[in-house]
Design brief:
BPD_transp_1_N; 14 helices; mainly alpha; globular
């Protein structure tokens, strides 16, 4: 097991190097540079001063020199400075990371709270009206784009019914650290998290339903029934337990999916997280922030895949064999 994990960690190194090169080249191929946005926002400033600043920051150097300098700073923990916000990129990202983490965690919890019961019901009672209803929900949630669904949820529950806030992460009038402050945080989180969760259940429901239907036909289940084991015990001790283990292996992939979806959700709900910062930084050509955020998202995606592989190797040891 340890050998498998070490081998997978070593595979991550060339993946991260390749990812960093692609990210850097894509950022450099975008029109303008890190100072273009500031020049557009301040047309009366001296172009010569910007040119001197560009030379000072090394933006006129060849791309490979800039890349080596960027990677060297990353390794030393220096993520650079945001040209737009004039603060350290690490500080800017750190302030938003907690919000994105809370949103992702609540989305993940809601996803499994919704998907697991629905998958079990659909698998235990296939072709029933409940199964058809759940499968219909699955088709709809698979077909509808996240940004369209999030806009509908915002319009219905935010603007029409006025049940939840339409933006921000907390009420600024509430004192920080109090019970009301935490309640306000949850109140601001619930709609973005629910919007993401309702569309993230597709894979878990479908996979769990298929696993339960297949497991019901396995020999050990038939043997348990032949021994006179009650139907409740057959399901709880044999079918559900064996069907849920492979689903747990998709935890890492679910994290990756939710992480990607947070970019749309945070933007639509004006939630101050990393996704909103990412979109804003692209529009303002704040390359130092964009590069670090893409690298961070990529690293977390690779880490999520690694987590899934490790869980899969525990569930099914055969995949560890070369």
């Amino acid at each position: 097991m340890l050998k498998f994990i070490v081998r997978r960690l070593l595979i991550m190194i060339p993946q991260l190097i390749l990812l960093s090169i692609i990210i850097f080249l894509l950022a450099k191929s975008m029109p303008g540079d890190a100072l273009t946005g500031q020049m557009a926002a301040n047309p009366n400033l001296d172009p010569q001063a910007f040119e001197e600043l560009r030379e000072k920051l090394g933006l006129n150097d060849p791309w490979y020199e800039q890349y080596v300098r960027w990677v060297g700073n990353l390794i030393q923990g220096d993520l650079g400075i945001s040209y737009i916000h004039s603060v350290k990129t690490s500080e800017l990202i750190g302030n938003r990371m907690a919000n994105t983490f809370l949103l992702g965690l609540l989305t993940l919890i809601l996803t499994y709270l919704i998907a697991v019961p629905l998958g079990i019901i659909a698998g235990r009672y296939p072709n029933s009206w409940m199964d058809k209803l759940i499968v219909g929900y699955n088709f709809v949630s698979y077909a509808i784009p996240l940004f369209v669904f999030a806009l509908l949820m915002l319009f219905l529950f935010g603007y029409t019914l006025d049940w939840v806030p339409t933006g921000g992460s907390v009420d600024v009038q509430v004192e920080s650290g109090t019970f009301d402050w935490y309640l306000s945080k949850l109140h601001h989180l619930i709609l973005p998290a629910l919007s993401g969760a309702l569309l993230s259940t597709v894979g878990t429901i479908q996979y769990l339903r298929s696993e339960i239907i297949d497991t019901k036909l396995k020999d050990f289940v038939k043997t348990a029934r032949a021994k006179g084991t009650s139907e409740r015990k057959v399901y709880t001790r044999h079918i559900f337990r064996n069907s849920l283990l492979p689903v747990a292996a998709f935890l890492g992939y679910d994290i990756v999916f939710i992480l990607g979806g947070s970019i749309f959700v945070e933007r639509i709900f004006n939630y101050p997280g990393l996704g909103q910062l990412f979109v804003t930084s692209i529009m303002q050509r704040d390359y130092s922030v964009v590069n670090v955020l893409v690298m961070l998202f990529g690293f977390l995606s690779i880490l999520g895949t690694l987590l899934s592989d490790i869980i899969l190797s525990i569930v099914d040891p055969r995949i560890r064999i070369d």
